[in-house]
Every structure is written in structure tokens, then in C-alpha cells.
Amino acid sequence: MIWEEHASLAPYNTFGIDAKAERLVHLTHESSVQAYYQHPNGYAKQTLLLSGGSNLLLCNDVPGTTARIAWKGMAITEETDDHVWLKVSAGESWHETVLYTVQQGWGGLQNLSLIPGLVGAAPVQNIGAYGVEVADTLESLSYFHWEKGEAHTLTAAECAFGYRDSLFKRSWKGKGVILSVTFKLTKHSHVLKTTYGALQEELHRMDLAPSVQNISDAVIAIRQSKLPDPKVLGNSGSFFKNPALSAAQVKTLASKHPAIPQYPQPDGTIKVAAGWLIEQAGWKGERVGNVGMHAQQALVLVNYGGASGPELWAHAQRVQSSVAEQFGVRLEPEVNLIG
Questions:
Q1: Which of 13, 141, 236, 269 could form a disulfide bond with 53, CB atoms 3.0-4.6 angstroms apart?
Q2: Active site residues
Q3: pTM for the model
Q4: pLDDT band of 191, cuts 50, 70, 90
Q5: Is residue 215 part of a domain?
Q6: Based on the domain organization, do 35 and 79 belong to the same domain?
């Protein structure tokens, strides 16, 4: 463990907000979690558990102890002619992990290329893109439960995954930390998912046949064309969730707005594109001071430099209110608000 006092969290959140942590502890090994749990200024004083900082908005300085997940490592735990099981530590970069699996020719994660953040945060949000979610390939994970002071293994079913949702955002929110995740990946290309419209279009544009590598390349090209690099322009990717509405709600909306993008779900609901709603409400590319919705992707809230957490959140609320007034749809943040 490495301890710092009154440390800036600017390097550890993708909005680049210079909030201060009263105490910041870097957990550099998985074994550090047990030591941190037992330390008098560790878990007992914890206010924030920080992963890659790509899915949070810091609205104030953080009192108490902030723990940063920083342990790494990956290993094959099982392999057959058809599948490989890869165990990945929570502190590994998500995108670098995806690239590693792609380079090996293992299918399952390629649609999730170029998503910021760390592996340990991916199941919490059940991150997803281009027709694929983490839940589709996650076999199990190791979880340190604070109240019990020990690690447990949970299967995918026990994680209770939903759309951008999981057990760790509901009844187990703040109850522990994910130590590692094991993915079951395929060695066969015939099970690759390319049904998402934008992905099909990009593969066609690039004149590429579906493969693990080509899908990853296409996804990266799409995301780079629409999404700003957090290292250049502070952002957390998609700030709002795509709202899941009833068929009746969507029918009413479509009668007034025939062009509204619709994505039917297995449970009978229909997701509509939050970015489209924001753009139609006139917020795409609109800037207020140092904040705004990105010019290429209306779903991305941007810090143009020097904006505070409260300024960013105030702008998000303006967008929420505008969309609700025009469409009767309340957008829900995908990011976690801290402070």
C-alpha cells in the first residue's frame, strides 16, 4: 500500500476534476485489500473506492480515505478446444485487456473495445456496446466483502446483471470490492455478434469480413470518430443511459417523432437513443462556459477545461429538464455522482 495526504484526484478521474482526497491509498496488490481492511485509517474511514475514474463525477473534495484499485495481473485458468477462461485482476485496463484477447483470437470482448476504465469496474456497471454486455462473457468474479472481511466467488447469475446494472449497484452497493474477473471466451468466429446497425455499417465501409480483430477495429474506428479522448478533453463517455420505455410510450413518441431510434429488448421494453433525444432538444455541441455536450456525440458531457463537478452536474440537469419537457422522458445518469 502507498499512502498520500491531501492528494489531488485529477489524475484518477477522466473528467480531470481537481478534487482533493483527505487520504489516498493506492492498493498495489490484491493482498493489500486485507491489510487495508484491517488498517485503522483504511476501510473504517473509507469514503470512496476509486477504480479507473471513468464512471464518476466528483462534485466536492473527498473527506476520509479514498482507496484506489491498482493491482494487476492475468492468467488462463482453463482451456479446451472451444473456449478459454481468462482471469483478470481488477486493476487492469479494460481496453488493454480487450486488445490482449483480440490478439489471441479469442472472441467475446471485441465489441467492447476502447471503453475507458478498469476491469474491476466493468461488472458493476455491466458495461455494454454494439450489442454486447460484460454479462455475456463473465463466468465468475472474486469479491471481497467488507462486512465479512473475506473474499467470495460469485457466478454470473449471482451478480444479477441488468441493463447497465448489477447486484453491485443495488443491494451490494458499497459492500465490498471486486478483486478479479474470469471471462469465458470463444475460439470460434461463428458466434460473433455483428447485428448492431452501426457496427454492420462500419464493417461494410471498411470492407471487412466479421472476425474478432475486424470487429474490434471497426468498434475502435466508430468510437474514435464520435467520442473525445479523455486525455485530451475531460469526459466520462456516455453520461446518460438509453431509457428503456414501454411499447405504448414508444408508440406515442414515434407518432410525433417517427425518426426516433428504437431498440427492442428481450423483456418487451424498447430502448430509445438518449443521444438522439438530447440532439433533438438542441444540446448537441452547445457549450455553457467550460461545459457542454460534445459536438460529435450529444450523449457525452464534456469538461472543456477548468470546470468543477457542480458546474458539470448543473449542465447535465439542464439537459435532463429540457429533454423531459420536450419528450416526457427523464434521462438517468450512467455515471456515479460523488459528493
A1: 13
A2: 164, 238, 334
A3: 0.84
A4: confident
A5: no
A6: no
